Amino acid sequence: MTTITVPPSPLSPDEDANKLRKAFQGLGTDEKTVIEILSHRSAGQRLAIAKAYAHLYGESLLERLHSELSGDFRKAVMLWTMDPAERDAKLANKALKRKGDRDLWVIIEVACASSPDHLVAVRKAYCSLYSSSMEEEVAQSFSTVHPLSKLLVRLLTSYRYSGDHVDSELAKYEAAQLSDAVKSNQIGRDDVIRILSSRNKSQLKETFKYYNENYGKHIVEGKHQCKTPRPKWMAAKTTLSPTRGQIGSDGSGKKAPADIEVIDKSQFTTLLKTAIWCLASPENHFAEVVRTSVVGLGTDEDSLTRAIVTRAEIDLEKIKEEYKIRYKTTLRADVIGDTSGDYKRFLLALVGSEGP
Amino acid sequence: MTTITVPPSPLSPDEDANKLRKAFQGLGTDEKTVIEILSHRSAGQRLAIAKAYAHLYGESLLERLHSELSGDFRKAVMLWTMDPAERDAKLANKALKRKGDRDLWVIIEVACASSPDHLVAVRKAYCSLYSSSMEEEVAQSFSTVHPLSKLLVRLLTSYRYSGDHVDSELAKYEAAQLSDAVKSNQIGRDDVIRILSSRNKSQLKETFKYYNENYGKHIVEGKHQCKTPRPKWMAAKTTLSPTRGQIGSDGSGKKAPADIEVIDKSQFTTLLKTAIWCLASPENHFAEVVRTSVVGLGTDEDSLTRAIVTRAEIDLEKIKEEYKIRYKTTLRADVIGDTSGDYKRFLLALVGSEGP
């Protein structure tokens, strides 16, 4: 459910490109026009405008936006104007370079909160942009971090069946497998990763439903009541499987770590939780991303921009509903409170109005 | 390099469909016309004919071929007429049901001897046809067979960079990793699977080249001189990594094997070899598939058909060259010796002539 509003009879791509060109010319940039046009056009229309702009004026719209705008406003407008697959490939690449905890969220979002076709398009774009595959970089970057590498690679390389077919018996069986992994303190076990990385999303929702019904009560996240409860097993006391030393040194003579690293348990649990949310109820995850980016001192503009730009045409309406329930305030109000200027105006145009 | 010959001015799809329709009508089928048309049309032309046929006569060309033809000829013509991605999805599904040694070859061929885009198309087709993903079925079918499951899933889910960029330092480093895995008798090690399943094909060829140059002499396969020598490490004494018991029982209460199975070492080595050949020199692998299908008593028509039908428009010309060098006879001569009737005529039309 998109939150942007497209005029019933928008201008043609050529007309839009022309208005943008005029907004760039002269002293200073007419940011108001840039926002007015780009924030009210769908992904397809934005691509058509970029194409028309390049054709008419012999320069790249993205490059011109880069030279005309600045700061967080520029970042947001550029991410919004890019081809969505290319945008996500770039976000993933940046995250892979930084490798912080929050950066891993980005990788998991791309892997789990995308449609199978979009995920493939992102992987193609990644190969074109960086002359290497996304899984190759992930596998190499985290090759000694067990079982994180396996989890990320399997999630990123999935092409899930996207129909609604659900096998209830299988869901019961696999809910039991998940329960066993939790009880045995082996949450990084191969079968857990296999289930999360290969089953279709409807099937997984059924599995989590059985889990909640049969292996404990719903988990309420923190003080806030989730609309879609986080599967209970995510909050159980969990540790990784006892795999330390399984792989051994790589023996290459170039760089031979004495042993593999084992990722911090709570960090792995958080990432697995992120994956489950992105798979079963991405609106929960993205509500948390936005909230985390605005609470406390300072704002994490990169995360705020990413959540709004990447979800505006997918499920931002649901994220806003979830936000209201969980945080007793509106996403729009939090954006107003934490941003300013053109950046604020642009994000608010994407966020749209809040319902009654 | 395709081996089929397409007339410089072929009939239109409507005209071809009409000729096929006439070949089906009356008493008996005019197989000669079926062969004459279909074996001399490219994949795109065949799809256009099938579309025109359905449009003109309100029935599926594939279904009509199924009811008009029979035996190995029917199987071959149908595989040839199908959309290539759908064809490979069907071959993989059949192989997954049977799970014999030779069936695993089929999975590896699809995973390693396809272009990245074709592999994705096969995975999409698989989801549409079977309401589950290919990796889901592979992961489930072989979940207790370690490390085969990991190898197959990682190969099948790859989307490799398909450019020519090669990093020589990386090739040296990874050749050393492979050598270490062989020396430590741990050929099923995670780093071996990571390298084979994520690196681009040009990079892998460079890695195997370094391996051959630095860790031993070339291996000559059996009595026959390979044009592209099999990487030496494939013939070294190798065993799997000592992973027995790593995963433990699945603890589901439904079916809880006491321990995981460990695939027979020589079987795993053969499969890894198949993967390496399909990645670095598929013509070697398919020459072997054809040869194995015709030598000895009886013919393995399914394998013979698969090799010729799936490679005719890709690299059958190279396979024929390789065949001549390795087996001191021609592929065409072996097809003539082991097949008969319309089946023979059809395969020979796809195989084309042998050079001087």
What does this structure look like?
The structure is a homodimer of 356-residue chains. Chain A has 356 residues and is mostly helical. Among the domains of chain A are: 13-84, Annexin (Annexin V, domain 1, Orthogonal Bundle), CATH 1.10.220; 285-351, Annexin (Annexin V, domain 1, Orthogonal Bundle), CATH 1.10.220. Chain A is 63% helix and 1% strand. The first copy, chain A, contains 19 helices and 2 strands. The first copy, chain A, has a two-stranded parallel ribbon with strand order 1-2. In chain A, α5 (71-81) runs parallel beside α16 (301-311), α6 packs antiparallel against α7 (101-112) and α10 packs parallel to α12 (190-198). Chain A is globular and about 65 Å long. Residues 217-229 and 233-259 of chain A have low confidence and may be disordered. The interface between A and B is large, with 51 and 52 residues.
Q: Brief description of this entry?
A:
With 356 residues, chain A is mainly α. Chain A is built from 19 helices and 2 strands.
What is the fold named in CATH at topology level of the domain at 13-84 in chain A? Annexin V, domain 1
Q: Uncertain runs of chain A with pLDDT below 50, 5 residues or more?
A: 217-229, 233-259
Strand content of chain A: under 5%
Q: What is the count of helical runs of chain A?
A: 19
Percent of residues in helices of chain A comes to: 55-70%
Largest interface, Cβ cutoff 8 Å: A-B, 51 and 52 residues
User: Assembly type of the shown chains?
Assistant: homodimer
Under the CATH scheme, which architecture of the domain at 13-84 in chain A would be assigned? Answer: Orthogonal Bundle
Rg of chain A, alpha carbons:
22 Å
Question: Which structural class is indicated by helix and strand composition of chain A?
Answer: mainly alpha
CATH C-level class of the domain at 13-84 in chain A is Mainly Alpha
Strand sequence of the main sheet of chain A, in spatial order? 1-2
User: What coarse outline of chain A follows from CA principal-axis ratios?
Assistant: globular
What is the CATH superfamily of the domain at 13-84 in chain A?
A: Annexin
End-to-end CA span of chain A: 17 Å
Element order, helices and strands of chain A?
A: HHHHHHHHHEHHHHEHHHHHH
Rounded average pLDDT of chain A: 86
How many distinct beta strands of chain A? 2
Give the biggest beta sheet of chain A: 2 strands, parallel
Protein name (chains A, B): Annexin
Keywords (chains A, B): Annexin, Calcium, Calcium/phospholipid-binding, Metal-binding, Repeat
Organism (chains A, B): Zingiber officinale (Ginger)
GO molecular function (chains A, B): calcium ion binding; calcium-dependent phospholipid binding; phosphatidylserine binding
